[in-house]
Amino acid sequence: MKRLAAYILIVIFTTISVVPAQESAEQEELAKKVKEMQKEVSKICGKDFKKDVPVGVKDTEELKKFILEEMEKKSSDEEIIKSQKVIEKFGLLQKGTDLKKIFVDVCTEQVAGLYDPEKKELFLMKGKGFGAGAAEDDMAAAHELTHALQDQYFDLLSFIRSVRNDDDESLAREALVEGEATLLGFRYVLLKGERFTRERADSALNKAPAIVRELLIFPYVRGALFCQQILRRSGWKGFDSAFENPPLSTEQILHPEKYFETTDYPTALKMPELLKQFEGDWQLLDTNSLGEFVISVLVSQFLTAGDAKKASEGWDGDKYQALEEKKTGKIVIAWVSTWDTKEDAQEFAKLYASVLAKKYNKKSEAAHNASFIFISGDSELACVESCGTEVIVVDSVSKAQLEKIRPELLKTVKVISNEQKLDEFAKQPFSVPAPPAEESKKEPQKKPEHEREF
């Protein structure tokens, strides 16, 4: 995992290499059926397969072993550890969570079929897709055949991998890929009048941390809703244009009108390198973008669903750097975001200050246009500062470090038609107030029952 949890999802669901299944009568029967299904899939979407797709069958143990091997090949343990540290620091994951095991369990349980864009092969899972029932068989096969068709026309590997260091845009593309496949799979089984069996309520997916669950579900559910708009406006032919001009952010997936009507291009932010501002042995864990969807998931861990919606809507772009002091393991988050309006920025700043206050069980102190959470006096604090349509967040630094980092963050550039530095920030008064003289010891706040545990 290299870029938050989204990286693992992309690795597992779009780059798995298939180990050829043994020849059997069962496989021959399946291959014949899938070949017939290709004709039906082509008829639905109005696009012919350029060549037949090889198909195989695997059982659960083979899949589990294979997923572990692929994860080890695609992501080193060091990369997984780094990304998990960042997720934990944001508050999206509880410390000590075995993220690797969770992903293996969820994928082993949920994967009913896979298409490999490297070897151009497809396989279905015996008992979960193939052999699970007519609807499950057909849904899985039609879904994966859609991926094969997408690959033959648009090269899925290039389509996904062309986005670097931007989880938000990658997730938006994933939503287009999975959304179309989900709609076509449903269309196929509905035309045949088939019914699905009921899913277990105690599944590994339902038990997974919210960030894992939400990132996994988003491309299928939200992606399908977005792709319904493509169908409504242009029919299946509209997907050709969508792949040629893919959505650029989860904001566009969540608000299709920002893609179809008035295109809302996200603003790219170019941050200066911050490593040189830290004395001692520090390393950069990650630099990336969260985007509207992940920001909403993050805020919902600490506040209400309504607050999460208010905090994330109006997003226009963001970039963060996560840095770690190697000796102590201390992690610093430096995060810059830009918003559609001044009011959107102020809303986010206000609510995110509340997020940090809850995360550290401390009171938020206001000074000028900034909020401060004194985690441990001057030695460790967090700052949320808003100015115009921009917001700066610095989490877990000393007062002296903040005074060095903030001027550097003001050099962040908004890449629009021309480069604009965050000059307005520099014009605003800024000073860190003294921490409260005495900090009363408080009992950790209990989460309301409606909030999800993770």
Structure description:
The protein is an alpha+beta fold and 454 residues long. The protein has 2 domains: 4-260, no CATH class; 268-427, Protein Transport Mog1p, Chain A, CATH 3.40.1000. It is built from 18 helices and 14 strands. The strands form 3 sheets. Strands 6-7-8-12-11-10-9 form a 7-stranded antiparallel β-sheet, sandwiched between helices. Strands 1, 2, 3 and 4 form a 4-stranded mixed β-sheet that branches. It has a 3-stranded antiparallel β-sheet with strand order 5-13-14, with no helix packed on it. Helix 8 (167-191) crosses helix 10. It is elongated, with a radius of gyration of 24 Å. Residues 1-22 and 446-454 have low confidence and may be disordered.
